[in-house]
Amino acid sequence: DWMTAPDTRAVVAALTADGQEVRFVGGCVRDALIERPVGDIDIATPDAPETVMALLRRAGLKAVPTGIEHGTVTAVSGHRPFEITTLREDVETYGRHARVAFTDDWAADAARRDFTMNAMFCAPDGTIYDPFGGWADLLAGHVRFVGDAEARVREDYLRLLRFFRFYARYGQGPPDAAALQAAQRHAGKLTTLAAERICHELLKFLEAANPGPAARVIRDYGILQPVLPEARYAERLSWLAAIEREQGVAIDPLRRMAAWLDLREAHRLGERLRLSKKAERYLRTLAAPTASVRVDRATATLRRPLHRLGRELTRDLYLLDAAERAAAGGRLNTKALAAGLAEIEAWQPKRLPVDGRDVTALGVAPGPRIKELLEALEEWWVDQDFQPGREACLAELKRRVAALPGDG
Ligand code: ATP
Ligand code: MG
After folding, report:
1. Alpha-carbon separation of residue 300 from 27, 294, 386 (angstroms)
2. Is the pLDDT at 408 greater than 50, yes or no?
């Protein structure tokens, strides 16, 4: 249990050495209460960040000032990072944006957090402080803003996306009406957010066990219309999540993004979402018309994409095609699906047993023709299920070179 683990104890002991009171807060409290695996551990303290740094160093712990101006220090103890944040409160509101100040008021800090289930504290002895009824909301699957939804969204439009992230993960039943209304009213303001913040929230959203129902709400209410109108395949996303679960395939938010979006309609997606080069390349490859894997064919047809695209892309295309068919009302044969996935997993990369030197040795002059010959030979070799060895490939190559029109 993370709360009583030696790493955690060491951090708590350091922070409380001078008698200060600290409490766990946010995601770790929420997830512990419903026995979900806990991700990052956040700790709140009334001490100023400089004091936090000094206390950690005095105890021999590594302390990194990861966000000093926001009051955040990261402690590293064992293998886990602990985010230690000084209590904050909104002191003044200039128009929509609040100015924050450090405080020693736990209630004020809770009040500026986004959802009731994220505004709970837990003392190191296990006492829960739950000023807004977050625990009951959590159990009921009710994602609810702390205070007035409309006002909270206007303070920070990212909360609109965070609402769907948490609704996808913890929601049961229809979404909170006030939150939905605020989201709908202010969706246009999403364009004012930095692309990387939007992308970060969307990827987190896509990591939910089944983001499908929330994606349906997002589409029906036009929430992402201003920033990501191509996010419209909620059913395909839902089916992909169901297939992943049923087939024991690990969740991959980018694969889910590919299921959710109309990739062929998506222009400059990488740029718009500030995706990494790798993520962008992945989505572009999946969208290419030549990248096609069909689950309804004999599994032997997988060898072409496997050879050309490799194991991971082939597996993803295979899962996406299965989701697409299911969403279109087709029947899923889970046994056949499992057989295809097993074949993909077992795939070992193959190399054509001849190369450019073999072609020149046959008297073909250097030039583009060598590459063309090799590519055509490789097609033939793949069609023969990689069976022809070096001798057979050389013989076929000879036949093809002999059949070339003379070019002097
Ligand atoms: P996860 O398990 O996905 O990390 P989390 O609750 O830890 O969930 P974080 O984004 O890491 O989510 O934020 C930590 C805590 O900080 C939240 O639980 C919430 O209390 C607060 N918080 C984060 N972002 C906001 C925001 N935009 N507005 C208000 N409170 C926020
Ligand atoms: Mg977190």
Report:
1. 46, 11, 12
2. no
Which of 30, 74, 114, 122 is the pocket-test mutation for ligand 1 (most atoms within 8 Å of CB)?
Answer: 114
Q: Is the CB of 156 under 6 A from ligand 1?
A: yes
Question: Which helix (H) or strand (E) element contains residue 45?
Answer: strand 41-45
Torsion 70-76-79-84 (CA) sign: negative
Mean pLDDT of 178-182: 98
Q: pLDDT tens, 4-35?
A: 999 999 999 999 999 999 999 999 999 999 99
Residue 98 has pLDDT above 90, yes or no: no
DSSP letter assigned to residue 302: G
DSSP, collapsed to helix, strand or coil, labels residue 331 as coil
Is there a contact between 109 and 26 (Cβ–Cβ < 8 Å)?
Answer: no
Closest-CA residue to 42 (of 1, 16, 17, 12): 12
**ipTM of this complex:** 0.98
Find out whether the beta carbon of 165 lies less than 6 Å from any atom of ligand 1.
no
Ligand 1, atom 28, residue with closest C-alpha: 114
Block residue for tokens 């009213």: 185
Q: Are 27 and 38 in contact (CB under 8 A)?
A: yes
Q: Is pLDDT above 80 for 99?
A: no
In this prediction the pTM is 0.90
Orientation angle between helical segments 195-206 and 253-260, nearest 10 degrees: 100
What is the tens place of the pLDDT at every residue in 127-151? 999 999 999 999 999 999 999 999 9
Chain mean pLDDT for the chain: 92
169 Cβ closer than 6 Å to some ligand 1 atom: no
Residue 9 is encoded by which pair of tokens? 């104890």
The torsion of the CA quartet 175, 179, 181, 183, rounded to 10 degrees, works out to -100
Instruction: For tokens 């951090």, name the residue.
Output: 11
CATH 3.30.460.10, the chain: domain bounds: 1-140
CATH code for the domain defined by 1-140: 3.30.460.10
- Please indicate whether residue 152, judged by its CB atom, sits closer than 6 Å to ligand 1: no
What's the gap in Å between 27 CA and the centre of ligand 1? 7
